[in-house]
Hints:
Elements (H helix, E strand, L loop, with lengths): L5 E5 L3 H13 L3 E5 L2 H10 L4 E4 L8 H11 L4 E5 L4 H9 L4 E4 L4 H18 L9 E4 L2 E4 L4 E4 L2 E3 L3 H12 L5 E2 H8 L8 H18 L6 E4 L3 E4 L2
Amino acid sequence: MENSIHILVAEDDGDISRLLCSIIRKSGYLPQPAFSGTEALLYLEKQPWSMVLLDLMLPGMTGEELLERIRLRGSVPVIIISAKGEQQTKVSALRGGADDFITKPFDIEEVSARIDSLLRRFAQITPPAASVPHILQHKGLVLDCDSQVVTAEGTEAVLTAREYEILKLLLSEARKVFTKANLYESVWEEPYYGDDNTVNVHMSNLRSKLAKAAPGSEFIETVWGIGYRLKA
């Protein structure tokens, strides 16, 4: 999806994580929960992020350690959301590279406003990224973002809106393996609760249509136990 705001939520408390993800989703952004510091680090290494919401008391790797790793990787904005509200903790986090600090329990509207504010502020000081290409292509597969026409080996494949968005996501990062959770949360913009059937059906239909347009060519492969990616 073009120009999507992806926000990583590193929070080990399930209820708080769901609440933060709900706040992010209602603001029109895409949340990704991580329930430990090590899991959050794995997500950080997979793709660029627009923002990180970070709890300090995480299992596996503490929030302070994760913040240090984040800062070694670049300038992604970070909001600390923590029950450790002592002044020294706040000062240390801000000196360590955090952009903002919110103490639990928090006000939902305040969290939403601070996310929006920090994203606006960061956009003003970040040089504009290169424009998103209007044509996405992999081997004989071509997706025209302006006309929303997909062709496979020169033959048009007529796709539904969901199939189109799935293919567009795969083409946006041709080497990446997308899990079913990645696909569902990015395309449907809803939390993924392990219902594989929805993704499986749409993926099967998409592959069938591409195969019909280009017999003998295979564009999407299944990475067993993980997900899908474009065939190398």
